[in-house]
Amino acid sequence: MAASSRGGSALTPAQIRLRIEDLGRWFHNLDLGGVSTAPDHFLGDYPRFKWAQFSQAIPADLRGRTVLDIGCNAGFYSIEMKRRGASRVVGIDSDEGYLAQARFAAEVCQVDIDLRQLSVFEVGRLQERFDIVLFMGVLYHLRHPLLALDLIHEHVARDMLVFQSMLRGSPAGPRLEDDYPFAETKIFDDPGYPKLHFVEGCYAGDPTNWWIPNQACVMAMLRSAGFTIESQPEAEVFICRRSEVAPESQAAYPARRKYDRD
Fold first, then answer.
1. What are the structural domains, with CATH classification, of the chain?
2. Residue 117: how many CB atoms within 10 A of its CB?
3. Pairing of the two strands 157-164 and 237-242
């Protein structure tokens, strides 16, 4: 069962179906006026089935709160945040095709979402902090994943971060020591040691799957970027709170020309 539009769209199901087809292949399976956008999704009713496993970890009443959805795709999570009453929802994605799908979905669902074509590396341009930041299914598509978390912490996260990533490898083991002597080498062979697997070619037929972490790595990266993990309501989902970080752990920027900073 796809995520329902619940709205009274002026478009007929036939018109909606035609627009869905015109907007290309959908990754989010939404129910728009009784028409599913991705009924044959290889993961099933995605992302609704995942949302059902962690939705209780996000306040049911978001009135007065602002939300940023990074990598919003066709807008499933942005729409859910508006349904919970969020006063302002901004959805960003680097893919204009996904944003076109999100605009249409928001129109059919009759919700107001501010959609912009930006990557996670451009969040500083928003010049705004948000009460809740959603960073779902993006990390492993990035060539510079830790920088992305640093930039979220520095520019847009005010309080809650809802994070999700594909995970591969062993589950997290006991918390590691803060330091090890130079002669210690066996720890790196421990299955529970934080590992970020680099994909030089493709994984699952997708050339944008660059880095795939194990659970220990995700948890370590979140902590390093300045986020305190409060809970893990679903196998791949972490509910975090923003905390302060030491100066040496803050985002490091490459050298930039003057007009790049304007």
1. 59-245 (3.40.50.150)
2. 12
3. antiparallel
Q: How far is CA 84 from CA 3, 61, 209, 250, 254, in A?
A: 14, 5, 32, 33, 39
Length of the chain: 262
C-alpha–C-alpha distance, residues 10 and 18, integer Å: 14
Percent of the chain with pLDDT over 70: 91
Planar angle of CA 232, 138, 219, nearest 5 degrees: 35
Q: What is the pTM of this model?
A: 0.90
Buried b (16+ CB within 10 A) or exposed e, 139-150: bbbbeebbbbbb
What's the distance, CA 193 to chain centroid? 24
Instruction: Note the pLDDT tens digit of each residue in 76-105.
Output: 999 999 999 999 999 999 999 999 999 999
Those residues whose C-beta lies under 8 Å from the C-beta of residue 176, and which sit 6 or more positions away, are 187, 193, 194
